[in-house]
Amino acid sequence: MHKGDSIIPLLTANQAVISCDGFSIFQVLLGGGRSVFLPENVPDPDPDPSFNINLYSRIDGLNLIEEWRKEKANRGFTHSYAYDKAGFDKVDPINTEYLLGLFNQEHMQYEVDRNKTKEPSITDMTAKAIRILRKNPKGFFLFVESGRIDHANHNNWAHKAFAEVEAMNQAVLTAKYLTSDQETLIVVTADHSHVLSIAGYASRGNSITGLNKVTIGKPELLLAKDGMPYTTIIYGNGPGRTTTTRANLTDVDTDAPDYRVDAAVPMSYETHAGEDVAIYATGPQSFLYSGTHEQSYIAMVMAYASCVGPYSDRELCAKHQMEPSQTPCNQRDAAYIARSFPLFTTGIALLTTIFMMHFSQNLDDMVKGKWHNLYDGKKFCFHPWATAETTVSTFTVIRSPTL
Ligand SMILES: [Zn+2]
Description:
Protein name: alkaline phosphatase
Order of helices and strands: HEHEHEHEHHEEEEEEEHHHHHE
Family: Belongs to the alkaline phosphatase family.
Radius of gyration: 23 Å
Strand order of the largest sheet: 4-12-5-11
InterPro entries: Alkaline_phosphatase, Alkaline_phosphatase_core_sf
Structural class: alpha/beta
Low-confidence stretches: 341-376, 379-392
Strand content: 5-15%
Number of domains: 2
Cofactor: Zn(2+); Mg(2+)
Helix content: 25-40%
Keywords: Magnesium, Metal-binding, Phosphoprotein, Zinc
Bound molecules: zinc ion
Largest sheet: 4 strands, antiparallel
Mean pLDDT: 80
């Protein structure tokens, strides 16, 4: 079926287009991975010379893009397929019911490397998706993943990871702008962290990816016990460490996007980590995301807020329970969710637990725009202690059905 050593991208592509009952549930599907949608004998419309087509090339003859088009046409849906920014921009969300956009043969580019004439940004894609989906009076579920934050961290590229977080921040703000928090639950969270740490006591205002200094604005570097300077950001493991002892960074531009941050343990690929990750939310039932929870609880609240799955019954529906009652609503809602917790096995849970990525920064801070203008395209100017953890994320936008 394929030439590469991983079957997962091909299976994911299959499921994106053809599900067990003959058609995909996805109305809008945007991202990279074009090579796993096309058979090996069909030339790519915009081939990348550096891409190894033999890694992910279909040998089963299936052209999933054509299959997708045929299926939408047969069912009479207005639909568009785009492989670049120009085609994407032409898609009119008002007159489009289904949209497939595959903007790279492999992964989407990192934001700092993105060719803006070829690939839309995560904000562009989020806005287009919401404009298409919000026409549905039954509501919608949108899942957005900034997947390259993870990849950047695996490579110890902290600068690139932070730039991805900043790009996602803009997408969250856009989602907030295009929806109403009276009827739309937005959840930002992660499925794991990375072994990224922020060393304390950096000078106030120092670049988060820079070398620690005695005083900001002055050249004297803080030195470690080995007499050499060190960066504020350090990874526990990964390819950033290439020598047995620390490299002397005195004359190294640690703010550069391609600078691999030092790691304690030399490894070819940095690992995920084990601490709890944060979850932030706005909109209906968002107050239920507080404290510490098993990951499945995240999807339970989403279902409860949108009155689907085990909560589709009026007695269990969040909207019904929001009507005046003697019981404080937070106690009542938590009790309902706890009671029906084991029953929940819908696709929302699957999507959430599989794809949720690493997160960190407080959504309120993001929404209030605290990160605005803190990245000038070259350096990050926010204070290290303001970032808490600085790994990654995905977010979910769910508009409740009109009951
Ligand atoms: Zn990962």
